[in-house]
Each structure stands twice: as C-alpha cells, then as structure tokens.
Design brief:
CATH class of the largest domain: Mainly Alpha
Strand order of the largest sheet: 1-2-3-5-4
Mean pLDDT: 86
Largest sheet: 5 strands, mixed, barrel
Shape: globular
CATH topology of the largest domain: de novo design (two linked rop proteins)
Distance between the termini: 80 Å
Structural class: alpha+beta
CATH architecture of the largest domain: Up-down Bundle
Number of domains: 2
Number of strands: 8
Order of helices and strands: HEEEEEHHHHEEHEHHHH
C-alpha cells in the first residue's frame, strides 16, 4: 500500500471517530459535578418558606451566588450561626433545580466586633451592600474582589480607622468595576489639573477643570485637599493610605463625593447610609453627609 493511501485511510478513520465521539457525547453527556466546596462571605439573608433561609454570598470560586439553607431558621439548626451577614465561611454547596443548597457550613472568621459595635455594623453593612449592588450572579469569579471584601471586613474588625477603610475600599472597588475616576487630568479637555479648586463630573467620571466646569451645570466642586486624598487612595497600598490624616471637613467632602458617584453609577440610593445616619444621631455624633443624595449631577 502506498504512503498516500495510508494517509488517506487514517484521515478517513479519524473523521469517522470524531463524528462518533461527538454523537456519543450528545447522547450520553458527561456527568456534571453537583456538589462543590466554596469559600464565601455572607452578604445578606432573607426568610424562605417556613423554616429556610435564602442566603446571598460572594464566593471566591463563583463570584456572587444565592443559596438555600434548609431549616436554618429552626432553633436546632447547626448552619444558622455560620450564615450571618459579614461571616467568612467554608461551604459545601449542592446544585438544586434553580438555586444552590447549603449542605455544610463552617465559620472561618466571624468578625465579631462588627456585630458588637453599631458604628462598625453600619460601616460593614455599607461595604457589603455596595458590593451586592455592584455585581451580578452571572459575572463569575473575581478572586481579587473577594480578597478586597475580606481584607476590608478584617480591617474594620481589627480597629483600623473605619473612614479610611471604607474610602480605600470604594476606590479599589471602582478600579475592579472599571470605573476608575480620572483625577490627574481634566475629564473633559484632558489638560493637567492645576493646584486650585476643581469640579467633579459623575457623568465624565473624573475631575473637571474650572475652565470647562463653568459651562457645565450642576457639577459638585472638589477642593484640592479632597483631591489630594483621593489621588493618594488611588495609587497607594492600604498601609500607605492608612497614614493619611485628613481634617473633619475633608473627610466629609470626600465621603459625600464618593457616595454621590456610587449613587450615580448604581442609579439608586443605598440603604446602609441611612442606617449610619440614624446611629450617629442616636449616639449624638457629628452628622455625616454619607448618602444625603443632595446636589450634584444625576441627583447624586
């Protein structure tokens, strides 16, 4: 048999085998794994049915998912204590018809101070709500975002300045979501920002110079001091950012601006800022602009 005939014969057989394999794969698909082990942080939960809970999680392996914890509302449930908001857990998840089902739960880190101090509870609630509103279940895993969330809860729990923890978290979250604000050049004309008071445009996603800002309505202003700290958070590690010592006025300005920007991006107001305002009022603390939603473009 000639060499060309051998090659032709092998090619024909390979084609037939490929077709047969494809047909068999269609008729007898490979079994899918219906149980997985996953590291997660509990974002929130809600009652489901008579005794179950619907838990919203951000996992290292799948990103944001929802799962049913069967019997979690029963007094005898062993899973209930592991599925409280802010808890860092190791889960065994089984694939149900529509949702995952929690079959086993073990706490890796409870972050107990976040439940013992109302101000920390409010800040942790803002952190998890911001992530919950910013991502969708279909997006898949983002290990860096998971690490950011876990690190932020750890920092809040360990006594770091809550204001710095939250502002640094906001800036890193904007990076991961693809909305990194433009802080060094004008977002309208691209000229380098000069050391003077500027404007900030939620629509353009950054600082607007006075020359451009004068012709644009409803732009919130931003001082050079506030801009300095935003730049610092954007390009620093948390260890470097934690050395910042902004004044109370600068803190209020940065907080208000960041909250306005997120409200614009999410097209909704968050619930946790109102909870924080209520706590501060009850504790007779100075009021915070977080979540006021007054002024600025887009009602932010």
């Amino acid at each position: 048999m000639r060499k060309c005939d051998i090659v032709k014969l092998l090619t024909t057989h390979y084609s037939l085998l490929t077709t047969l394999y494809s047909l068999l794969s269609t008729l007898f698909p490979m079994p899918q794994f219906r149980s997985i082990r996953s590291e997660a942080i509990v974002l929130r939960h809600a009652d489901w049915g008579e005794a179950d809970r619907l838990v919203t999680l951000y996992t290292r392996e799948q990103g944001k998912v929802r799962a049913i914890a069967k019997g979690a509302r029963k007094i005898t449930s062993r899973k209930a204590g592991h599925l409280e908001p802010f808890t860092h857990v190791q889960l065994q998840l089984a694939k149900g018809r529509d949702l995952w089902v929690v079959t086993q739960a073990d706490t890796l880190e409870a972050y107990l101070p976040l439940r013992e101090d109302l101000m920390l509870t409010g800040n942790a609630s803002y952190v998890v709500e911001l992530l919950d509103r910013s991502v969708y279940e279909e997006e898949g895993a983002n290990p860096s975002l998971f690490r950011l969330l876990a690190d932020t809860l750890e920092r809040l729990s360990n006594g770091s300045d809550p204001w710095l923890c939250v502002r640094y978290y906001e800036m890193r979250l904007l990076d991961f979501l693809g909305f990194r604000p433009q802080l060094f050049t004008c977002a309208n004309c691209e000229r380098e920002i000069q050391p003077e008071a500027q404007y900030f445009s939620f629509t353009a996603g950054g600082v607007i110079c006075p020359r451009c800002g004068q012709g644009l309505p409803h732009l919130p202003s931003i001082s050079m001091e506030a801009l300095k700290y935003l730049r610092h958070f954007q390009r620093s590690t948390f260890g470097e950012a934690a050395r910042a010592r902004p004044t109370a006025e600068t803190r209020a300005e940065v907080e208000s601006l960041m909250q306005g920007y997120f409200s614009f991006l999410l097209e909704r107001e968050l619930h946790s800022p109102g909870f924080l305002r209520h706590i501060k009022k009850s504790l007779c603390l100075p009021p915070s602009p977080l979540g006021r939603g007054d002024g600025g473009e887009g009602g932010g």
